[in-house]
Amino acid sequence: MSELNEVELRRSAARKLRAFDGANVRALLGLDGFVDNIIDVVDRRSDAENYARVEKLGALGQRIERASGLSTNIELVVRQEKLGGNGPIMANALIEAGLSVSYIGSLGRTEIHSVFHAMAARCRECITLCDPGMTDALEFQDGKLMLCKVETLKQVTYARMLEVVGLAKLREMWSNCNLIALTNWTMLVHQTEIWRRLAEDMEGIKAPSGAVLFIDLADPEKRVPQDLVDACHLLRRFKSNHFVVLGLNQKESAELGRALNLELSAEDIAANAARLRAALDLDAIVIHPTKSAACATSDRQARVSGPYCANPVLTTGAGDNFNAGFCLGVLAKLEFPEALAAATATSGFYVRHGHSPNRQQLVAFLEEWNT
Predict the structure, then answer these.
(1) Residue 125 pairs with which residues in a beta bridge?
(2) Strand 26-30 to 34-45 pairing
(3) What crossing angle do the helices spanning 359-368 and 6-18 adopt, rounded to 10°?
(4) What is the torsional sign of CA 342, 344, 347, 353?
(5) Model-level pTM?
């Protein structure tokens, strides 16, 4: 496509998304699931009902540091209990966008946890493997601190998938889905083996034309760098049947770059995406800081600005909504700069309103965002 300014780019993306019908576009997502508690950290409390929260993540760090050698009390206020996990939040966003979504993940061992009921009711199919993890998400203006309890997620294994889903069913889903998204590699400690077994057992299955495999790592800082490299190198095995996309936030891109011994730029995220893509031999790499986003394929790079929000209503899940918007754009046959615009708009709407946009709301946001 010819080069457009960013306002024209957003309008072009809006026109194409308005005409897109996702009802017959099938997506399979997994494999995590969390119950998220969205939490304020209290700075000052004036009475039983009113308090001022700690606004900056660094201020909490300073308070904790001052307590070294002493002790301190930190009050947490749960604002909301909600569906969580990279996969469920992304799935929810794609459901809102109108896609036919199936989900496999950790939603409850014997029955689906109540926070997932609304999502499960709107899924084409919802299959649970084990109990969800739990996250206390401490939110601040400039970031969030995710305190996760993940013991149950050790049960997410390929053997458990075969036990619950069955190989024939997995192969049928693999062959019929336009999008497969496998998220949260970091906390699903068996996911590398799951990818390896899927590469073996799904070999030879013909996916729909233009099918996408999307991967999200989810902050791999705590994982062994070589394990991260080995997992990412596995992904090229899926390229015969899928357009393989690895999505990264800026911190994740830096961690992956260090693991690969790459020199990355502090500013040029499009060039960084290109270096990472070439090193891993994938079809596309997407990088999304809070104020912009970039994508690199084998033949081009693109970068767009994002609708930065200084006072977000909700930030936990913003990256998952970005991922959903990008995948929606690719499936709707948007050019990659337009798909980035759809992604940043999906995330931008989410942080302002506290929920994912439906397709009409996304189109309106793209049309009205003119700065």
Answers:
(1) 102
(2) unpaired
(3) 160
(4) negative
(5) 0.91
The b/e string for 293-328 (b: 16+ C-beta within 10 A; e otherwise) is bbbbbeeebbbbbbbebeebebbbbbbbbbbbbbbb
Distance from C-alpha of 88 to C-alpha of 86, rounded to nearest angstrom: 6
Q: Is 163 exposed, middle or buried (0-12, 13-18, 19+ CB in 10 A)?
A: exposed
- Give per-residue pLDDT as tens, 260-274: 999 999 889 999 999
Structure-block tokens of residue 48? 């039983």
Q: CA-CA distance, 339 to 13, in Å (whole number)? A: 7
175-203 pLDDT, tens digit per residue, is 999 999 999 999 999 999 999 999 999 99
pLDDT over 90 (residue 53): yes
| Burial environment of residue 184 by CB neighbours within 10 A (0 to 12, 13 to 18, 19 or more) | buried
Residue showing tokens 């576009």: 25
Sequence-ordered list of residues with C-beta below 8 angstroms from that of 123, at least 6 positions apart, any chain: 91, 95, 101, 102, 103
